[in-house]
Amino acid sequence: MGNTVQNMTAPVELKIMTYNIRNSGMKEKKKEYEWGYRREGLIEVIKKHNPDILGMQEVLDDQMKFLIQRLGADYTPVGVPREYDPRTKKYSSEYSCIFFNNKRFEMLNNGTFWLSDTPDTPSNVPAWGAACVRICTWVLMKERTSGKIVAHFNTHWDHVSSQARLNSSTLMRTRMLDALKKLKQEGVADPLLSVSGDFNTEPNNPELLSMLKPLVDEETGIKLQLDYTKLSAKVRKGPNGTYTDFDLSENSLIDYIFVQDGYSTEKSWNVDSYEVDDQLLPGTNFVPSDHRPIVVSITNGHLTCTEQEDYVVVNNKI
């Protein structure tokens, strides 16, 4: 993931947001659902929270250009569209992009891998029975004040194939563990690992639970076990569900943010707040996308893991 430097251990407060903005190419049931009607209200929601790290899903080229313009020079975008045509050597379709506040972070490296058997080979062919090509975009950064190293991963899993979601979990966890091993080799002290995305599966489904199971590198003892921020939050705000389909009675929870501090579960970030934002688009009775965004505020407080986190893994329920 690139060369880094030893980072300091000063406390760090961060705000992470995940937001599926619904791609602008959809044929909508109502004119009010179209991107041109929604986009300013969506920007208002993002700016209200002013996240340090923003993971987004379903972003098409026209939406990416708009986001870059409206979020302004303080945010740096990372990522490529998910489909690649080897004949034309051009990318197309949706980004699972990351925007980060460049006043807070210096980017060290970034990339995208494909959720397939050949993750480092860009493709336009869905894998593992998926309906669509799926990707994961990552960025490695250094927090400018503390020197804290942060690795953030953002993804959008398939909505049809449960096998594709399970395989995506396995691949992502392997890549995250590899990232931790490389950072350890480079002498980085206790990096933050964070994950955002639309996982297209509800909390108690095997695909989502597999993301929370421990994965240990036997040679180094480095342990990946992500903390589900909703369970760990001191304060929870907003409704339970994140997917609305522009209908506020819909209450499916399929979007998530996970974190891990360092190379084991002996340390943990304090999740100060977890919010599902339900601000309506002005003059309507729906939110600015078919998903509600999630926003978490975290502080690295070096807490011991809670029994609640173990419960998720042992009893296979959330």
Provide a quick synopsis of the model.
Pfam families: Exo_endo_phos. With 318 residues, this protein is of the alpha+beta class. The chain has helices at 35-49, 61-71, 162-185, 206-212, 229-232, 307-315; strands at 13-20, 53-57, 75-78, 81-85, 90-95, 98-101, 105-114, 135-143, 149-156, 192-198, 215-216, 223-224, 227-228, 235-237, 255-261, 269-276, 294-300.
How would you sum up this structure, described in words?
This is RNA exonuclease. It comes from Acrasis kona. Residues 17-291 form the Endonuclease/exonuclease/phosphatase domain. Pfam families: Exo_endo_phos (PF03372). This protein is α+β, with helices and mostly antiparallel strands and 318 residues long. The chain has helices at residues 35-49, 61-71, 162-185, 206-212, 229-232, 307-315; strands at residues 13-20, 53-57, 75-78, 81-85, 90-95, 98-101, 105-114, 135-143, 149-156, 192-198, 215-216, 223-224, 227-228, 235-237, 255-261, 269-276, 294-300. The chain is built from 6 helices and 17 strands. The strands form 4 sheets. The protein has a 7-stranded mixed beta sheet. Strands 7-8-9-10-15-13 form a 6-stranded mixed beta sheet. Strand 4 and strand 5 (90-95) form a beta hairpin. Helix 3 (162-185) runs parallel beside helix 4 (206-212). The longest helix has 24 residues, at 162-185. It is globular.
